[in-house]
Amino acid sequence: MTTRRVPAATGMTTLALILALGAPAIAQETGAPSASGTPEAGAQFGTVDELMAATGLDGTVGTRGYAAAGDGAGMTYFVQPSNASGPLGDLAVPTADGEWAVPTGFAAQPSTRPEAAAVENEIARAMTFANAGSSLVQDADRPSPLETDEIVRSTQTGPYPITSSSLVAMILKGWDYTHTTYAADANTCAGTWVDFGRTPDSELRHAHELARWFYVNGDLWLAADNAADNAGGGYQRGDILFFSRQSPEGSGTTGDDFANVYDTAIYLGDGKVIHSRGAGAGVVVESLPESLRRDLSLIARPQWRSAPVATGWPSALSAGPAASETPTAGAPGATATDPASARAGETAAPSSAPGSRNSAVVVDDRDPGAGASTASDDVIVAANGSAGHRRSGLLASTGAGCGLILLTAVLLGAGMLLKARRRSGEREA
């Protein structure tokens, strides 16, 4: 066998070549997934800022995050010489050499159906902020109850500050006006709510942060090219509308905010929205302004959880809706304590009358402020028959086992007695 020696310089060159060839594959493996879950081919970047600073790009590229690599908001883009029209054009970002990276892979329609009772609960909470009238004013420079642990009514003078993003986030967290520190000593849950996991409230104070959360965790889809088309079913009462444009916060700010989102509102139906509108106004209900209609880019549909009822028992669906479930929300305006405190250490009550064959007992030990739990965190026992049926089966099998043991003992006893008699007869003989 002949051994061929490779000069050291050649070996280093070969190693460098291997590493160079392997680098794109490694980058591709850690790049942003496509809609099918498979990483797209092409260059991969950690953030959108890195993508915007690149030159010479062609075809499909990706990011591993938006503001930071690994933040969950990675996206795929198609690089082209000119920007797209419609919502995709509002979401696109330019590269350093004048090309445009247009995002791809957004859903074209919602994946969930609206939950009628939960939506009405959401709207009822929203209207309490509108009914507060002159107590609230649009102000992004002072903290709202969403952004501070201080009691707003004790530390500020009215009118108290609110923005569209803080309004929507507070409603999504299950709060109404009277159950926030605008009017009380604590922020507490007063209805259905969205589980934001361990995301701090302060990270939901901007519209683009809410949009990014829904992109990573919820049901978010692209608005139709013609915003008027959405009135035919693209979005429905209770859905969250997001608005985007190039340089959303002034010249040169494209790419600073997720998907260039700069504002948000809740759709009420019949062309109307509720949001915080204008420097001199608080929360208003009005027809969707044409200026916002033109910028409508993304739509989100909340997946609601039911707040605990006043007795302290969790609702039958408090473990959170599965994709195929349609939970029943609590009654609009129902008062309840914050889920994080009310549900600590609680036990579950039957969800239907005694003797019901379809009764279910649900035990949920999760803190609503925590992230998505594993299957071991939630214990769900559903008696689709009745407990008596399972008990009867257990007793029947136990009885059969006891009878078998008794029969075996009798046979063994008879055998031993017969053997003893034979030995006695042998001795007598």
How would you sum up the global shape? globular
Provide the spatial order of strands within the biggest beta sheet. 8-13-9-10-11-12
Q: What gyration radius follows from the Cα positions, in whole Å?
A: 31 Å
Terminal-residue CA separation: 91 Å
Q: SSE order in H/E notation?
A: HEHEEHEEHEHEHHEEEEEHEHEEH
Strand content: 15-25%
> Please, how many helices?
10
Q: Helix/strand/pairing class, anyone?
A: alpha+beta
Number of strands: 15
User: Biggest sheet, open or closed, and with what strands and sense?
Assistant: 6 strands, antiparallel
Structure report:
The chain has 429 residues and is an alpha+beta fold. The protein contains ten helices and 15 strands. The chain has helices at residues 8-29, 48-52, 86-91, 116-131, 152-155, 164-172, 207-217, 290-295, 339-342, 387-428, and strands at residues 44-45, 59-63, 76-80, 93-94, 100-104, 136-138, 160-162, 219-222, 240-244, 261-269, 272-276, 283-287, 296-301, 360-364, 378-382. Helix 4 crosses helix 6. The radius of gyration is 31 Å and the shape is globular. Mean pLDDT is 73; it is low at 1-41, 309-402 and 423-429.
Give the helix/strand layout.
Blueprint: H1 8-29, E1 44-45, H2 48-52, E2 59-63, E3 76-80, H3 86-91, E4 93-94, E5 100-104, H4 116-131, E6 136-138, H5 152-155, E7 160-162, H6 164-172, H7 207-217, E8 219-222, E9 240-244, E10 261-269, E11 272-276, E12 283-287, H8 290-295, E13 296-301, H9 339-342, E14 360-364, E15 378-382, H10 387-428
Parallel strand pairs: 1-2, 6-7
Antiparallel strand pairs: 2-3, 3-5, 4-5, 8-13, 9-10, 9-13, 10-11, 11-12, 14-15
